């Protein structure tokens, strides 16, 4: 029952705002139910169960436990788990933790941003975000996301203005900038994990091996196992110095001349 | 002020133009110093960007490498223009180019005669054709001979790349509209050549080629120039002005090294190849009693007639999966590049199918939404995205110009360039026609979700025309050999010399012109005229 979902429709949908946010949890894959106002629901929930934070996650480098769990919870809502792995399985919280630890600018933004999420949650429900039910968590995110949408028409701009004014008066925090940041970072973390590539039929980074099948019909046979040979030796054919990076199987084609390269010995396999 | 030993020729800039001249002169035993503002890159280390699993995050910061924070300032004086792109480093903008080596069409050199717009070039396609050929063979350009638009090209240096899978799909809809696609000639190697490997079609030419399969100037002409032993490349040397003596002859070039110390490089001949923004800037900043308005500027045309390409990109979703993230599209249509009497405008545009080179993370970020619906969207549509881009010819106008900003200076104390630019009516009509044609092609392909870049301000990668050549010294800066009308030891060899912008990417034409000019310089030097 999946719907087509375009940017324009999205803007149209989100203009209706929170009215569309009446969400009913459903078990299984994707079930959409229209709200009373007969509006499509843009963010269906799969389940009322909250994401499980894996105990296998390494100790956070930068976040404290509360912040780490909060990032994990937000990530699991931004990319939920269904038949395919979600942000929780892809270790997105750990990825973001590492990323933030390396950037002073991000550190500031995350500390303020995560605090803002908790503030919004306390204002609305009197509880920390992590203590909310999944549906309440979702509603907060939907309300924040609504404010990130660009609006162009005059009535929409007026509505936005009123909404912002109302937020100001009622003491709500504007988390929309932070939501943009964490949404992008979650996607970066999620889609850079090879366990996700299979779901998309993606073969991995462009370099160093490129896409030598670019003229052929796309096929899952091209999946990265077969097309990512790498070697750390110089080719006997064309003397091209293969990169020092690592992982590959036995039969390797030279990155320079694409002729079969000698099999390598004693190189440890990776993934 | 330090004074390095005097040389025969000093070249400012090591991009498409400067590198060719350096190699040609070096091979003739002429001593050459090349002053390059940017640093020297080691491809394997510095361009190793799109190799890790989260390459999309790394890639974001990478293009900063090609900027010069100390001089990366431009004043934009008018609408229709964003920040023009420039790349600093040994190899210049060829480090970042996509190496699309399409010649200019014969008509592009005589737009006044053929279409009553702009000005004719002082040279013709026939004059340039042998030099085009030399460059194409020297760089082993990959392309297919017998071209519909260039029947005189029988063969390129390397066989062509095949059309990408999605280009084959799009070709059908081009054909439905009576257009046709031809393999795009590219300075990427389809077979190993001179110790460099074949291109693996990763698609990320714009970040610098890690494996040296792209024939950027640094791994081709600069490497050959240095191997002659007569050419010294001096990176991180920012030229501020050129000095002349009281007879109006070239004396020296003043530049600052990376520590900000001034040097004076004496030379008999100076060749400015710093690109169409920096070249006029250096000339205008070289004021003297003989040239109070800037060196070689008796015509007042230095910096005038700044041209860009009106570049429109677009994307859409195809019904079937094509996986267009796999490298380059490899096709071009010049069907609308020439003036058509049925059109309300003169000149035209070139069109190319384009790959959607963003990986899944950027695709996700650029698409609205999150949650399960987002995940569904990605599963359904990732791999269905295709693109198309079009380059419109932009006609020269005297009011579009590069000047010196009277107020702002950069860290070297040099006035920053101030660019005034506005599209004219003809340009706007071409842009509208390009968008219309894109819609037609997409709908012939049954594509949905067509997004055409509606941006008003262009961020041009192709800057051209600011020291144009011509026969009349009163209306042009250079003669057809890129030699200044005013100072005969001064040459400007880069896209500044262009008289019209064509719809083709400029690098090949810059290099062909550079080859022709270098031949002229060698000839004149041997005759003792220079």
Walk me through this protein's architecture.
The complex is a heterodimer of chains A (271) and B (530). With 271 residues, chain A is mostly helical. Chain A has 2 domains: 49-200, no CATH class; 203-271, no CATH class. Chain A has 9 helices and 2 strands, in the order αααααααααββ. In chain A, α5 (134-148) packs across α7 (176-191). Chain A is globular, with a radius of gyration of 23 Å. The two termini of chain A are 36 Å apart. Chain B has helices at residues 16-27, 43-46, 55-62, 111-115, 125-138, 165-176, 221-227, 275-284, 360-366, 371-381, 425-444, 507-527, and strands spanning 7-12, 32-35, 75-76, 182-183, 231-234, 238-244, 250-256, 262-272, 310-317, 331-332, 349-354, 385-392, 401-409, 415-420, 448-452, 490-492. In chain B, strands 1, 2, 5, 6, 7, 8 and 16 form a 7-stranded mixed beta sheet that branches. A 4-stranded antiparallel beta sheet of chain B has the order 11-12-9-15. Chain B has a 3-stranded mixed beta sheet with strand order 3-14-13, covered by helices on one side. Chain B is an alpha/beta fold and 530 residues long. Chain B has one domain (7-50, 84-527): FAD/NAD(P)-binding domain (3-Layer(bba) Sandwich), CATH 3.50.50. Chain B is globular. The chains are: A mainly alpha (271), B alpha/beta (530). At the A-B interface, α1, α7 and α8 of A face α3, α9, α10 and β15 of B.
Key terms for this structure?
heterodimer; A: mainly alpha; two-stranded antiparallel sheet; 9 helices; 1% strand; disordered N terminus; disordered C terminus; B: 530 residues; alpha/beta; 16 strands; 17% strand
């Amino acid at each position: 029952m999946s719907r087509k979902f375009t940017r324009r429709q999205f803007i149209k949908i989100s203009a209706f705002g929170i009215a569309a946010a009446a969400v009913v949890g459903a078990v299984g894959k994707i079930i959409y139910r229209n709200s009373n106002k007969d509006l499509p629901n843009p963010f269906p929930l799969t389940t009322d169960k909250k994401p499980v934070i894996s105990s296998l996650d390494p100790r956070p480098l930068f976040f404290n436990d509360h912040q780490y769990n909060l990032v994990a919870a937000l990530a699991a809502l931004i990319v939920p788990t269904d038949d395919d792995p979600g942000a929780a399985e892809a270790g997105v919280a750990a990825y973001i933790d590492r990323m933030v630890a390396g950037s002073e600018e991000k550190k500031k933004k995350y500390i303020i941003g995560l605090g803002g999420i908790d503030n919004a949650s306390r204002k609305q429900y009197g509880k920390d975000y992590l203590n909310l039910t999944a549906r309440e968590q979702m509603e907060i995110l939907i309300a924040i996301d609504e404010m990130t949408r660009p609006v162009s028409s005059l009535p929409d701009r007026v509505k936005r203005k009123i909404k912002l004014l109302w937020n100001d008066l009622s003491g709500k925090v504007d988390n929309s900038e932070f939501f943009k940041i964490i949404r992008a970072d979650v996607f970066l973390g999620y889609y850079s994990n090879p366990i996700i590539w299979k779901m998309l039929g993606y073969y991995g980074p462009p370099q160093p091996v490129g896409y030598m099948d670019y003229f052929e019909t796309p096929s899952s046979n091209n999946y990265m196992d077969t097309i990512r040979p790498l070697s750390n030796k110089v080719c006997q054919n064309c003397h091209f110095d293969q990169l020092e990076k690592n992982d590959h199987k036995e039969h390797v084609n030279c990155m320079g001349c694409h002729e079969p390269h000698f099999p390598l010995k004693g190189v440890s396999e990776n993934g | 002020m330090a004074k390095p030993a005097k040389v025969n020729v000093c070249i400012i800039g090591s991009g498409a133009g400067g590198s060719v001249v350096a190699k040609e002169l070096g091979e003739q035993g002429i001593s050459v110093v090349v002053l390059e503002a940017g640093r020297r890159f080691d491809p394997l280390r510095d361009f190793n960007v799109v190799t890790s699993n989260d390459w999309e995050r790394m890639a974001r910061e990478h293009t900063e490498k090609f900027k010069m924070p100390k001089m990366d300032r431009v004043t934009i004086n008018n609408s229709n223009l964003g920040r023009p792109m420039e790349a600093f480093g040994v190899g210049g903008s060829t480090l970042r180019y996509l190496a699309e080596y399409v010649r200019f069409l014969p008509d592009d050199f005589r737009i006044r005669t053929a279409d009553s717009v702009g000005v004719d070039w002082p040279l013709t396609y026939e004059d340039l054709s042998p030099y085009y050929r030399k460059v194409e063979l020297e760089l082993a350009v990959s392309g297919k001979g017998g071209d519909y638009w260039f029947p005189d090209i029988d063969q390129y240096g390397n066989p062509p790349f095949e059309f990408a899978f999605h280009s084959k799909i799009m070709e059908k809809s081009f054909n439905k509209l009576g257009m046709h696609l031809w393999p795009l000639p590219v300075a990427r190697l389809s077979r190993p050549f001179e110790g460099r490997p074949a291109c693996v079609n990763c698609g990320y030419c714009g970040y610098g080629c890690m494996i040296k399969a792209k024939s950027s100037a640094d791994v081709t002409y600069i490497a050959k120039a240095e191997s002659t032993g007569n050419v010294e490349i001096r990176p991180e040397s920012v030229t501020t002005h050129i000095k002349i003596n009281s007879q109006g002859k070239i004396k020296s070039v003043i530049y600052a090294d990376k520590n900000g110390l001034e040097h004076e490089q004496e030379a008999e001949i100076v060749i400015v190849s710093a690109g169409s923004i920096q070249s006029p800037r250096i000339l205008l900043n070289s004021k003297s009693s003989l040239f109070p308005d800037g060196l070689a500027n008796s015509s007042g045309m230095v910096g005038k007639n700044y041209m860009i390409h009106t570049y429109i990109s677009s994307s859409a979703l195809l019904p079937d999966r094509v996986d267009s993230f796999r490298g380059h599209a490899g096709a071009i249509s010049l069907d609308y590049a020439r003036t058509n009497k049925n059109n309300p405008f003169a000149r035209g545009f070139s069109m190319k199918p384009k790959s959607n080179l963003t990986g899944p993370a950027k695709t996700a970020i650029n698409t609205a939404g999150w949650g399960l619906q987002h995940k569904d969207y990605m599963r359904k549509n990732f791999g269905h995205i295709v693109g198309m881009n079009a380059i419109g010819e932009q006609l020269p106008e005297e009011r579009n110009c590069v000047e010196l900003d009277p107020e702002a200076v950069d860290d070297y104390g040099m006035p920053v360039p101030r660019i005034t630019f506005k599209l004219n009516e003809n340009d706007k009509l071409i842009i509208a026609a390009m968008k219309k044609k894109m819609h037609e092609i997409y709908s012939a392909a049954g594509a949905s979700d067509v997004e055409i870049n509606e941006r008003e301000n262009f961020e041009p990668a192709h800057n051209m025309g600011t020291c144009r050549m011509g026969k009349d010294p009163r209306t042009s800066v250079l003669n057809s050999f890129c030699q200044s009308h005013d100072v005969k030891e001064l040459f400007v060899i880069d896209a500044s010399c262009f008289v019209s912008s064509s719809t083709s990417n400029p690098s090949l034409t810059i290099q062909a012109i550079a080859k022709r000019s270098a031949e002229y310089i060698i000839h004149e030097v041997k005759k003792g005229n220079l």
